[in-house]
Amino acid sequence: MIANLAQGVHAFTSNVYLVDGERTVVVDPGANFDAVAAVRERVDDIDAVILTHTHPDHVGNLEAVKDAFDVDAWGYDTSIDGVDHAIEDEETVQLGDHEYVALHTPGHKDDHLCFYSADAGVLFAGDLVFQNGSFGRTDLEEGDRGTLVESIDRVLEQIDPELAELHTGHGPSVTSEPYDHVELSSRMARQA
């Protein structure tokens, strides 16, 4: 089960995904709302926090969630405060009941990761791509449009055209032909 705990929250936050199962995790704890209470409404405990990247809107609640559930955070760069364990490019990580491959996808931020499970047909895209061809900002520090395009293309090469679910860092998840949305993001990022 994948639930967006930030759905309906009126604050500047990323989406916050609770992936329940054999290894229950929070993907990006978000910011500016009570993520701990939101998790506790659904489950008693979590096993880890997984980070797509460390922009403040994605990690503002990180310490609170780590402290409340006595868990560690996993991300790309352990030199960043709050990231306890490194996830290497192409490393396999368990989220819920499925294995996901971590893809290092810089361009929006240097430590950005996407997580893809071929078995589940699910892509957690962070701020790399969004619905309807939108894509991550590149005007922030560490942003680079050319690198972002390369990262989107890398994800396109990995994911199956029959992708079932695209879970993004902001906005709604895409469950109707999500592969097409990623493909459109690749084209739009080249034109902008």
UniProtKB/TrEMBL annotation:
Location of the Metallo-beta-lactamase domain: 13-170
Region (Disordered): 167-192
SUPFAM superfamilies membership: Metallo-hydrolase/oxidoreductase
GO MF annotations, alphabetized: hydrolase activity; metal ion binding
Keyword terms, alphabetized: Hydrolase, Metal-binding, Zinc
Pfam families: Lactamase_B
Family annotation (InterPro entries): MBL_Glyoxalase_II, Metallo-B-lactamas, RibonucZ/Hydroxyglut_hydro
Required cofactor names: Zn(2+)
PANTHER family tied to this protein: HYDROXYACYLGLUTATHIONE HYDROLASE GLOC (PTHR46233)
Annotated protein name in UniProt: MBL fold metallo-hydrolase
Organism: Natronorubrum halalkaliphilum
Lineage of the organism: Archaea, Methanobacteriati, Methanobacteriota, Stenosarchaea group, Halobacteria
